[in-house]
Specification:
0% of the residues lie in helices and 29% in strands. The protein is an all-beta fold and 86 residues long. Strands 3, 4, 5, 6 and 7 form a five-stranded antiparallel sheet that branches. The protein has a two-stranded antiparallel sheet with strand order 1-2.
């Protein structure tokens, strides 16, 4: 969950960066999730997981970066075979 600074909501995100203790910056890439589907080639239907209440869609047009200190609420992980580009 991450506060993206709009609509006063904390939103679920998928972290796309790998763990790297020697990274030059303490940043991770993220893709925000939404519960509203707007079928397009820039939206990926995510698998259902117990830690998300509703069906979720990854909005790949909204990829961003976030400082590691802002990542405080880990809810779960998608299985490694889950890919955005499959």
């Amino acid at each position: 969950m991450l506060d993206l600074g709009y609509q006063g909501k904390v939103r679920p995100v998928v972290i796309m960066s790998r763990e790297d203790s020697n990274a030059p910056r303490a940043l991770s890439l993220f893709v925000p999730l939404t519960k509203e589907s707007r079928p397009s080639q820039y939206e990926v239907t995510m698998p259902r997981v117990p830690w998300l209440k509703l069906q979720s869609y990854a909005n790949v047009q909204a990829i961003g970066s976030v400082g590691h200190h802002e990542l405080t609420d880990l809810r779960g992980r998608f299985a490694p075979q889950t890919g955005f580009f499959s």
